[in-house]
């Protein structure tokens, strides 16, 4: 399970709305939406919510200041990389729209924000950045659940009463 599947499952278990940040962030052709930050701020103005996001620089502080719990899916590099390749391969074969107006393409693998490229190049850097940020006093209020293995993810989510299609 990846971040979206984990967030969807947690939201369902808790009866919370699930906010898929990528759908707010990207417009057609993977262009960044100009109304992203105001739209996100409105979505997290509610008392309770569950979202899936590593945190774009323009939104991470906004999210972390409002959140009370951060679930960090800190799986080994190989697991993250293989999952990114599998998801991309599946999307290429089925020609599914990831986000309205956004489809995977063979040429897309070269984009700097492509999931496979990110999994390949930024795993260690992202881990260090999260550790650094979590050590800052302004985020002491966050309860952090750091999941480092598939087993830990399964233990957190418990038995699955349904199947997710992501």
Task: Name its key features.
alpha/beta; 8 helices; 46% helix; two-stranded parallel ribbon; Rossmann fold; two-stranded parallel sheet; 166 residues
Provide a short characterization of the protein structure.
This protein is α/β, with parallel strands linked by helices and 166 residues long.
Tell me the number of structural domains.
Answer: 1
- Using the alpha-carbon principal axes, give the shape: globular
The CATH topology label is Rossmann fold
Q: In total, how many beta strands?
A: 6
Helical residue percent? 40-55%
Low-confidence stretches: none
Structure description:
The chain has 166 residues and is of the alpha/beta class. It has a single domain (3-157), classed as Rossmann fold, CATH 3.40.50. 46% of the residues lie in helices and 13% in strands. The protein contains eight helices and six strands. A two-stranded parallel sheet has the order 1-2. A two-stranded parallel sheet has the order 3-6. The longest helix has 18 residues, at 77-94. It is globular, with a radius of gyration of 16 Å. The mean pLDDT is 87.
């Amino acid at each position: 399970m990846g971040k979206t599947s984990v967030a969807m499952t947690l939201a369902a278990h808790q009866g919370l709305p699930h906010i898929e940040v990528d759908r707010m962030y990207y417009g057609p052709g993977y262009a960044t939406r100009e109304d992203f930050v105001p739209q996100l701020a409105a979505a997290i103005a509610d008392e309770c919510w569950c979202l899936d996001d590593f945190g774009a620089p323009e939104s991470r502080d906004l999210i972390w200041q409002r959140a009370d719990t951060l679930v960090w899916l800190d799986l080994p590099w190989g697991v993250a990389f293989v999952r990114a390749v599998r998801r991309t391969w599946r999307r290429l074969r089925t020609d599914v729209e990831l986000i309205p107006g956004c489809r995977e393409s063979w040429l897309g693998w070269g984009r700097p924000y492509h999931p496979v490229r990110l999994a390949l190049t930024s795993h260690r850097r992202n881990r260090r950045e999260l550790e650094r940020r979590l050590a800052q006093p302004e985020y002491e209020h966050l309860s952090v659940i750091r999941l480092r293995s598939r087993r830990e993810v399964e233990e957190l989510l418990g038995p699955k009463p349904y199947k997710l299609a992501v």
